[in-house]
Amino acid sequence: MPKVIFYARVSTNEQTLAHQQTQAEKAGYVFDQVLADHGVSGVSTKMKDRPEGRRLFDMLREGDTLVVRWVDRLGRDYRDVTQTIRELMERGVIIRTIINSMVFDGSARDPMTMAVRDALISFMAASAQAQAESLKAAQLAGIEHAKANAADRTKAYRGRKPSFTRKTLARVVEMLAANAGVTAIAKETGLTRQTIMRIRADPAAADQNLKEWGL
């Protein structure tokens, strides 16, 4: 007896299996079996390289109906999606999508109907790949933005880069211990009076500032 099988690829919290299955059931489907690949990248893993994807190919028979949320569930890119759909249609499997209620049926024999169907498959697969590439680009941009923000936060945490070296700091501390005046220290070290007074007020903080900047 022909079966109705739901397949889902679940890679993010926003695409939970329960959410995808609920959408399908609201569309009127009743499933004999539900398969899902969890934590699998849609843009790097071929359909047949996914554990449940392989199982799906082994399971589907002529007359069965495969239901997916959208064609992007069926492959990692244009070529993979179109190959998956065409191979399953050649077996006599009917593929239905929840989004836009698309139907891909290999039983059509009229040349015009077949041409329209094949063109539609190509268009939908290309759209799925474009969407995946756009998402990947957005994710990469987000990662780079986060890295830049992290670097900015680290720099802000370290404060202003010291105008003195560790050797200069040691000399300032030494002269302060000898009761040298701020003006005399500034003249010898080339530091501003304000810098010397900050060092005098908290030499440990000055030393820590050098450490934070790796100096």
Topology:
Blueprint lengths: L3 E7 L6 H10 L6 E6 L12 H9 L5 E4 L9 H13 L3 E4 L5 E2 L6 H48 L7 H12 L4 H8 L3 H9 L1 H10 L3
Helix pairs in contact: 3-4, 7-8
Helix-and-strand structural type: alpha/beta
Strand and helix order: EHEHEHEEHHHHH
**Low-pLDDT segments, ≥5 res:** none
State the strand order across the main sheet. 2-1-3-4-5
Rg of Cα set: 32 Å
Count of individual domains: 2
Proportion of β residues? Answer: 5-15%
Shape descriptor reads rod-shaped
Mean pLDDT: 81
Task: Describe the model.
The structure is a single chain. With 215 residues, the protein is α/β, with parallel strands linked by helices. The protein folds into two domains: 4-127, Rossmann fold, CATH 3.40.50.1390; 166-212, Arc Repressor Mutant, subunit A, CATH 1.10.10. Helix content is 55%, strand content 11%. The protein contains eight helices and five strands, in the order βαβαβαββααααα. The protein has helices at residues 17-26, 51-59, 78-90, 111-158, 166-177, 182-189, 193-201, 203-212, and strands spanning 4-10, 33-38, 65-68, 94-97, 103-104. The protein has a five-stranded mixed sheet, with helices on both faces. Helix 3 runs antiparallel to helix 4 (111-158) and helix 7 (193-201) packs across helix 8 (203-212). The protein is rod-shaped. The protein starts with a strand and ends with a helix. The mean pLDDT is 81.
